[in-house]
Specification:
DNA Binding (I), subunit A, disordered C terminus, about 0% strand, transcription, mainly alpha, HMG_box_dom_sf, DNA damage, DNA binding
């Protein structure tokens, strides 16, 4: 039975970027070294190797990444709250374009 087409809702480009997990911070920091150590590994294989290495880390070794994840979560929650407040107030969520800002400044 064919699926019904999902309605394509336009995503607001000004929506705050989601927070990253501790593992994502670890992956970003270690992917290049892992790629150098395993030059023939595919993207998926690198992901598996990174996951395996992540599981081997002690809680002490994970702490810097966990802290970055906590800070990023706080950033996301703060930005999301500001974004939602602007939406609720009917304000535009984007920044004014340079020509519009220049025109507004010129009128003053």
């Amino acid at each position: 039975m064919p699926r019904a087409a999902k309605s394509s809702r336009k995503k607001d480009p000004n929506t705050p970027k989601r927070n990253m997990s501790a593992f994502m911070f670890f992956s970003i920091e270690n992917r290049e070294k892992m790629k150098t150590d395993n030059p023939d590994a595919t993207f998926g294989q690198l992901g598996s190797l990174l996951g395996k290495r992540w599981k081997e880390l002690t809680s002490t070794e994970r702490e810097p990444y966990e802290e970055k994840a906590r800070q990023d979560k706080e950033r996301y929650e703060r930005e999301r709250k500001e974004y939602d407040t602007k939406l609720a107030n009917g304000e535009k969520t984007g920044k004014a374009s340079a020509p519009a800002a220049a025109a507004a400044a010129k009128e003053e």
